[in-house]
Amino acid sequence: MAPAVYLDANILIGSVEGPDADFLRLVRGLRARGRRFVTSELTLAEVLPKPLAESASDLVAIYEALLAPDGLVETLPVDRETLRESARLRAAISAKLPDMTHLATARLSGCAFLVSNDKRLRDKGPIERLSIVEAAERLRP
After folding, report:
1. How do residues 28-50 score in pLDDT, each as one tens digit?
2. Cβ 92 vs Cβ 81: under 8 Å
3. DSSP state, 69?
4. How many other C-beta atoms lie within 10 A of the C-beta of residue 43?
5. DSSP type of residue 127
6. How confident is the prediction along the chain (141 residues), in pLDDT tens digits per residue?
7. Contact 90, 17 (CB under 8 A)
8. To which H or E segment does residue 55 belong?
């Protein structure tokens, strides 16, 4: 089985609200073939503010479904183990807590890649980061 892939919040926003809908179709296809895609519960708090502020209930519903327990992307809890790993990574890397929480979740869930367009994450930590373009190329069957 192929290793899991971590999806950062900015990837989901770009796939739902932006120009990257093709990537979400790729994720659906790969998920149907057994590929595991994960993110942190923190992602929900990152994707919802704009749709909530704009009363965009359709977008809120899309994100809620995407990140639901039976949704396309497995949403993992921010638990004590994740917070300890986040702290360990912050001590070693010196980065912001949300970024290290995403990285810790990816690491603890066995992800081979962290897909993010956030340049701050590009050279940090033990997991290979891919932009959405790189991920589409590398993950395509």
Report:
1. 999 999 999 999 999 999 999 99
2. no
3. T
4. 28
5. S
6. 788 999 999 999 999 999 898 999 999 999 999 999 999 999 999 999 999 999 999 999 999 999 999 999 999 999 999 999 999 998 988 788 999 999 999 999 999 999 998 877 666 667 889 999 999 999 987
7. no
8. none
The residue with tokens 């993950």 is 139
Three-state SS for 50?
helix
Residue 4 DSSP label: E
To which residue do tokens 């890649």 refer?
A: 113
- The secondary structure element, H or E, covering residue 130 is strand 128-130
Beta strands 128-130 and 4-7, pairing class: unpaired
The whole-angstrom separation of Cα 5 and Cα 56 is: 28
Task: Give pLDDT tens digits for 56-69.
Answer: 999 999 999 999 99
3-state class (DSSP) for residue 49: helix
Q: ∠ CA 130-37-51 to the nearest 5 degrees?
A: 85
Inter-helix orientation angle 80-93/97-108, to 10°: 120
